[in-house]
Amino acid sequence: MRNFEDRDLLVQAQIAFYDSSGNVMDTIETGTMSIGANQTIPSLPQSETTEDNSLWNRFTIDTDERTANIQYRYRYKDAN
Predict the structure, then answer these.
(1) pLDDT tens across 19-61, in order?
(2) What's the confidence (pLDDT) of residue 55?
(3) What is the DSSP code string of the chain?
(4) Which H/E stretch holds residue 40?
(5) Cβ(58)–Cβ(48) under 8 Å?
(6) How far apart are CA 50 and CA 28, in angstroms?
(7) How far apart are CA 37 and CA 50, in angstroms?
(8) Among the listed residues 68, 63, 66, the one whose alpha carbon sits nearest the alpha carbon of residue 22
(9) Is 46 helix (H, G, I), strand (E, B) or coil?
(10) What is the model's pTM?
(11) How far apart are CA 27 and CA 49, in angstroms?
(12) Structure confidence at residue 69 (pLDDT)
């Protein structure tokens, strides 16, 4: 995720993965994250990482079946 604002933001995101029939295979929610002004961070939930595994070491999210569609929604507000 990238914060293009010149202010710190609190962000929540939800990502849904769909199969070719339109069924939801998996949904991931990030929880509330703080993103600094003009900062970029990976959008992986904390459950996908460990203390020994940096967020930057994961670039993909695996699903059991082939993903046909991805939908996301997000909301944000000032961190102050």
Answers:
(1) 999 999 988 888 898 999 999 987 655 555 555 555 555 556 6
(2) 54
(3) -B--SSS-EEEEEEEEEE-TTS-EEEEEE---EEE-TT-B-----GGG-BTTB-GGG------SS---EEEEEEEEEE--
(4) none
(5) yes
(6) 17
(7) 26
(8) 68
(9) helix
(10) 0.67
(11) 16
(12) 93
List the structure tokens of 71. 């939908």
Q: Which long-range contacts (CB under 8 A, 24 or more apart) does 54-61 make?
A: 61/15, 61/17, 61/26, 61/28
Of the candidates 80, 57, 55, 67, which has an alpha carbon nearest to the alpha carbon of residue 17? 67
Does the pLDDT at position 73 exceed 90?
yes
**Cβ contact 74:13 at 8 Å:** yes
Find the helix or strand (DSSP H, E) in which 35 lies. Answer: strand 33-35
User: Under a CB-based contact definition with an 8 Å cutoff, are residues 3 and 35 in contact?
Assistant: yes
